[in-house]
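Hey, can you fold this one?
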Amino acid sequence: MKKTLLLLGLTLAVVGLAQAAIVTNTNQSAAFIRLLARNASMDVDAVYYNPAGLVKMKNGFHVYLSNQTINQTKTIVNDFPLLNAHTYKGEVKVPVFPDAYIVWKKDKLALSFGFGPNAGGGSADFATGLPSFEVPISQLPALISGMGLPTTKYSADIVFKGSSIYLGFQANASYALSDMFSLAAGFRYISATNTYTGHLKSVMINPGHPLLNPTAAMMSAVTFFNAIGQTGYAAQVADKTVDVKQTGTGFTPILSLHATPLPELNLSLRYEFNTKLELTNETTVDGTGLFPNGAKSGNDIPAILAFGADYAISPQFRAMLSGTMYFDKSADWDGREALVDKNSYEIALGLEYDVTEMITVSAGYMMTKYGVTPAYQSDQSHILDANTVGFGGRLHLSPKLRLDLGASISNYKDTSKQIAYVPFGTYRELYQRTTFDFAIGIGYRFGGEIE
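Sure. Predicted structure:
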């Protein structure tokens, strides 16, 4: 067991949702969920996706509010033979994932504000812990049997919960240089909070000791090791609890360009600079020694380069294309960026059709690719390539009011790695994930019709 039990790793990286990047959430409106390709948006959610495109809106004051309900299941299968069970499931439930956008547009000028969870945004609950927590405990029977005391069983109370939310507050100024070109500049303020709570308690074993436990009943591992004079092992299997909060803030400069080379074609380009973000531990309890109070760690949000195209095939039928690259290799993740081989990217296609003046239907597809090495993946933090399908529609309830409804399903590519457990051999660990997202959004324009 060495010192493994002391370092049970009650850590978890940012809780991933429907994001394309390792850190960044791209699901920033209900319209995105139903289309998945919004980088060339000229609607209110362009505050996030295409600030320069806001000058294409009608003059007036525009407001858009949306919320998403997200459910994600993370499944980890570990083949280490000494485990009681080999499958671990974590549930990520996000009933409230809000976005809000406000735009004031006058002729060539647009001023805008946006709010949303730009990273994180949920809580993961592993009710039975994780393999990295339990594998060291599962080795106890073999360890004690090696002392000449037959032992066949173990048990432990292992629970871990992690939550993460990076709230973004964005402001932009957009200006039309001509009918063809417009520019925008802005910034986003990030307020980040991660919390980790968990415990490993009540480690039990059934050593067949002639005096201490002649019936080989389950007994406290701490009591057993203390009784036989193995106080070092007793300390390692003692109850451990973690209660930690991490906080930090950062700024993201944002530049955007929009072009309309043809009446039916709109093109966009957006660059978000790397967000320097350092999180500080606020430790209430730390039984592992992994979270010193006041310690700092790098958790940058990587720079983003995004392009988009919106093409009107006919007055009623439109196609959208989006591509986004995330410069993960240049971020500061306390050295973890060295485990990234290539920057991650996404490609998305959306289609939208006006069935009537009141009803618009839409669908989209997004492919997400990551460039992490096998060493990056772990039960505590793993990222998987994904294919996402979105669908939904828009109801034009009045000339001023419209409603977006959308749903998406993300299917992830199963990924595994081989882990060496000395001296027991090398065994597979498999990572699986599914995500379901339902969104509703409402937009209103004061003083005129909504396009």
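Residues 1-20 have pLDDT under 50 and may be disordered. Let me know if you want another pass with a different chain boundary.
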